[in-house]
Automatic annotation (TrEMBL):
Coiled coil: none
Protein name, per record: CinA family protein
Chain ranges of the CinA C-terminal domain: 17-167
One Pfam family this sequence matches: CinA
InterPro entries: CinA-like_C, CinA_C
SUPFAM superfamilies reported for this sequence: CinA-like
NCBIfam families: PncC_domain
Amino acid sequence: MSEAGVGEVKASEIGELADQFLKACLKHKILAATAESCTGGLIIAAMTDIPGSSSMVDRGFVTYSNDAKMELLGVSPVTLDAHGAVSAETAQEMAAGALARSHAGIALAVTGIAGPDGGSPDKPVGLVWFGLAMTGQRVVTEKRAFENRGRDYIRRQTVRHALEMGLKALDED
């Protein structure tokens, strides 16, 4: 069993993923941006923990409320009314909005239910939608249903997956 326990995400693992992601951004000569809801800025924090990250990070949008999603990222109220904040459509608009409202070439977006409250049968605690936007490409969304092992666990898994998603997109580009 690892120090953090089976299935746990260590801070060192997140730091290593953030470092790899930023090195890939540097290689592609692009800046990164984030649009975060359920993680409350943990993704951008992992990136900016790395010395020298200012040459690869443009900005992070923490858009916890629906108003913030609309005002800062341009998420449509129609999308929020029809699909809710935790949906593929909202994740897609968050990623596209972060890309459009920054100088970044890649934007990572997350919206989900970290718990312990807020879940429903259709959208349980642990459900997270991810969006990834890159200049000149269509926005990609992914859905993950993390085991409800507590708020911290879900948020760390979300950060890990977002960074892995970004790294994979840059490696394929």
